[in-house]
Design a protein that fits this description.
225 residues, alpha+beta, Rossmann fold, 3-stranded antiparallel β-sheet, two-stranded parallel ribbon, 4 helices, 7 strands
């Protein structure tokens, strides 16, 4: 009788151990299930975040906001640059800015190409023009871009500085540049011209002469017409 009772107790103990072991495994499986559910939720959230980043990348990329801004800005720059360039060249040069280019495989890609046409209407490479002509193109584009950028911030350009920009110009080019400066000067509060050409001095009302003295260093003198 006692032996049977001992056997029963032993069996109960063994069963209890097994139950406890199974309960531990069950708890572990439940924990892993919860971890799996958490990872699924994180994966879903990450997928949404990735889609959001892809959208931001697309919007901020060359085909998004940048493209829209360029498409809006280019006609304004082109119009103002041509207005200045016409005064500089007596309507002999004109520029055209293209934001798309068709490749040989007929695929259209984003680009920013500037085409220059001469008095005959022929489109020529920038490097085929003379140094004076290239300077006039650069001047027109820079002033046009400057005016656009300042206008976007709600105010006009305050100051125009031309530093040694007349050295490559012939007499006709100098006259055109001076005329162009007169055309755009009302768009600026101040216009500063830095030059070593004495023949330009009389063209401006206020002149600042800077000289260098070996003993005292640089000196300046202001002269008013």
């Amino acid at each position: 009788m006692q032996e049977s009772l001992n056997d029963c107790n032993k069996e109960i103990t063994d069963k209890t151990v097994k139950v406890n072991s199974l309960q531990e495994r069950l708890n572990e499986l439940e924990k892993r299930r919860e971890e799996l559910e958490q990872k699924k939720r994180e994966k879903s959230a990450n997928a949404e975040e990735i889609e959001l980043y892809k959208y931001i990348e697309e919007v901020c990329g060359v085909r998004g906001i940048q493209s829209v801004l360029i498409e809006e800005a280019v006609p304004l720059i082109e119009q103002e640059a041509n207005r200045i360039l016409q005064n500089l060249t007596n309507n002999h040069l004109a520029l055209n800015i293209e934001t798309r280019r068709q490749q040989q495989n007929e695929k259209v890609v984003e680009s920013l190409d500037i085409y220059i046409s001469d008095a005959s209407g022929a489109v020529r490479d920038y490097n085929t023009f003379s140094g004076g002509e290239r300077f006039r193109m650069d001047f027109a584009l820079r002033v046009a871009i400057c005016k656009l950028l300042t206008a976007q911030h709600g105010f006009g350009p305050k100051m125009l500085v031309i530093d040694e920009g007349f050295g490559s110009q012939d007499k006709e080019g100098l006259d055109a540049m001076l005329e162009a400066i007169n055309v755009v000067k009302d768009d600026f509060e101040k216009v500063f011209i830095v030059t070593h050409l004495d023949k330009l001095h009389e063209q401006f009302e206020t002149k600042i002469f800077v000289s260098k003295d070996a003993a005292s260093g640089s000196r300046f003198e202001v002269e008013f017409n």
